[in-house]
Amino acid sequence: MTENQPSADQRKANPLLKFLGRLGPAYALLVVVGLFSVLDHQFGSQSFFSARNARVIANSAALVAVPAMGMTMIIIAGGIDLSAGTALTLCGTALALAFRDYTVPVGAEDATYWVVCALAVGLGVGIACGLINGLIIALAEIVPFIVTLGTMTIFLGIGQVIASESTVYPETEHLPDWMRYLCYTGSNSDRYWFDWLHVPSSALIAIVLGIGVAMLMHFTVFGRNMVAIGSNPATARLCGIRVGMTTVAVYAFAGIFVAAGALLYFANVKNGNPSDGTGKELEIIAAVVLGGGSLSGGRGSVFGTVVGALIIKTIGSGCTMLSIPNTYTHIIIGVIIIIAVLIDGLRSGKPKWLFDRLR
Fold first, then answer.
1. Does the residue 123 lie in any domain?
2. What is the count of structural domains for the chain?
3. Structural domain boundaries, residue 168
4. Is pLDDT at 135 greater than 60 in this prediction?
5. CA nearest neighbour of 250 among 63, 65, 72
6. pLDDT at residue 182 in the model
């Protein structure tokens, strides 16, 4: 590094870059909401800025944010999980099969016991998927991108096998009321957890889980170890951190959030289709990146991830209100993701040629 070249610490101290990194996603969300509100008022149905649409966006964002919380932990630890989408729908398919074949109507004797067993199946599948990824990555020391690319297709295939290559539809009377209305966005107060608070239950679950993950990241040794491993694995080893075991634990723990996301997914569509998972992992990763998470590891936040999920779903809702085709919606979201990655690069002093010219 030359005498006049800014150091990494100096770049990190730049107020503008700190603003972009910490508050940028929240301000970006406000800009997106404001932009689509104006456009919808002028050219759309004038229902974008409504309580009902806000509930729909909140519910849709929760379906992405919950599994993305696990992805946040993985990315902070310097990993990636391309199998998150198919693992999520594998869990959802397992849930649908359990409720179809191994539960009884809600009013029957021991119905609660069988509901708990079905939920345990979904949770177990999610943890197993994460554990498999973590063990292969840690023991074989293979790049996470390659491992999870392989398990992505494996989980998809397993889901198709157990579902006999079809969508699984459980009996409605086997589902408890709280599950049937977990993603409810209508106007009936009785369908919400709180009569006075018309917020989808899925969004409340996302908030509670987000608080839990944030506390884990900030107040536990496990959370600090994740950041250390993502920042520099070699240094983390020298500090006595068991990198392999921590990596396995991170992926297994992330599997819990995949299972929780699968529960929301199942409650939203009331069926299990393993093929629905293809492409979901990109949306989950995008939420982390848009929220300020660094694909280089060592940086990310739960709040940013939730905001990233809201940005994605707000754009989708706004484009729908304006009758913009999904193809263009995908282009818009893709451009925003690239901009977010470029901002992350600026925080790290990249591209180098730009900083050399600004010296």
1. yes
2. 1
3. 8-358
4. yes
5. 72
6. 94
